[in-house]
Design a protein that fits this description.
With 246 residues, this protein is an alpha+beta fold. Helices cover 42% and strands 21% of the residues. The chain is built from 10 helices and 10 strands. The strands form 3 sheets. A 4-stranded antiparallel beta sheet has the order 2-6-4-5. Strands 1-7-3 form a 3-stranded antiparallel beta sheet. Strands 8-10-9 form a 3-stranded antiparallel beta sheet. The radius of gyration is 18 Å and the shape is globular. It starts with 17 loop residues before the first helix and ends in a 7-residue tail after the last helix.
């Protein structure tokens, strides 16, 4: 774990995570001494399938992808978590482990909290519990909509949804994301991603080069995406204060 601890760089503040920022002052101050800033390097596994989760992570500038990996090695993304949420839902829901894995999709920072302390705070039944339960409902909506999207919509629509969900959790319009990573997230062949990304680039919606995707025309990208993106965005906006999905 030492490799992800911050060195000399100044991390974002904990309140850049919207769940932490929404806490009443007394609750926030009680947690603050136990919140540890960490760097989330691209591709790092925050937790693996079936392993006990000792910490929860509140992203501030990074994005974490929740993936389900099959026995043959193929994977598919079930949800993304950014500064609107928390990684490690199994801890406060009492499950301790999960069959999915969590991998950093976009490098950045987070604040981690020892799982035991989070469970103690959750059991108080106060503001944090209320926020986490609402966040869980929003995350479940994203997971369910992703399953529907992967089954019924084209690779191009899935790519648009994935790009927009990621953009909602970043301060810029540029994503550091290889086609291989996108293919793993969507659970499709890399050739399918290449074709879909090439089409969007040819029409001037995105620019893709050397593992970086810049969105050039977001309104057009939103016009091309399927209904799944709007469903997820609406639910996050309804349930969470100052959500990245608003």
């Amino acid at each position: 774990m030492e490799k992800i601890l911050l060195q000399s760089s100044r991390p974002p503040t904990a309140k850049q995570n919207h769940l932490l920022a929404a806490l009443p002052a007394a609750d926030y101050e009680r947690l603050l001494p136990h919140l540890e800033p960490v760097h989330l390097p691209l591709g790092w596994a925050v937790y693996e399938s079936g392993t006990e989760q000792g910490y929860v992570y509140f992203p501030t500038t990074g994005i974490v992808s929740l993936l389900y990996v099959l026995e043959d090695g193929f994977s598919a993304e079930t949800a993304v978590v950014g500064y609107e949420g928390v990684v490690g839902m199994a801890l406060f829901m009492g499950g301790e482990t999960t069959p999915s894995r969590a991998v950093v999709q976009s490098a950045g920072y987070a604040y981690r909290l020892i799982g035991r302390l989070l469970k103690e705070e959750f059991d108080r039944g106060g503001a944090l519990q209320h926020l986490l339960l609402r966040y869980t409902q929003a995350l479940i909506t994203q997971m369910a909509q992703t399953a529907v999207c992967n089954r019924h919509h084209s690779v191009e629509q899935q790519l648009c949804r994935s790009l927009l969900l990621s953009l909602d959790r970043l301060p810029s319009n540029e994503l550091a994301m290889t086609q291989e990573l996108i293919a793993n997230m969507l659970g499709v062949r890399r050739e399918g991603v290449t074709e879909a990304a090439g089409k969007l680039q040819a029409e001037g919606l995105i620019h893709y080069s050397r593992g970086k995707i810049s969105v050039l025309d977001r309104p057009m990208l939103e016009a091309r995406v399927c209904e799944c993106y709007a469903v997820v965005k609406r639910e996050y906006g309804r349930l969470l204060p100052n959500s990245a999905a608003n």
